[in-house]
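Input chain follows. Return structure tokens only.
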Amino acid sequence: MSHPVDLHVGRKLKQIRTLRRLSQTDVARKLDLSFQQIQKYEIGSNRVAASRMYEHAQLIEVPPAYFFKCL
């Protein structure tokens, strides 16, 4: 079972990705990952490392703290 924080971060990743009109494949290519890995991050089954979260934030142009707002 996924930790509630991992689920929250995953929801925030998906939310901002869709707001920016990016597909999972778009994000995966830009971060040199598979789209399956992006799926796992978004559903919270895989934790996002701090360095990877930082890369996500830069790509999507939000501060890293965005992923923890409203916890």
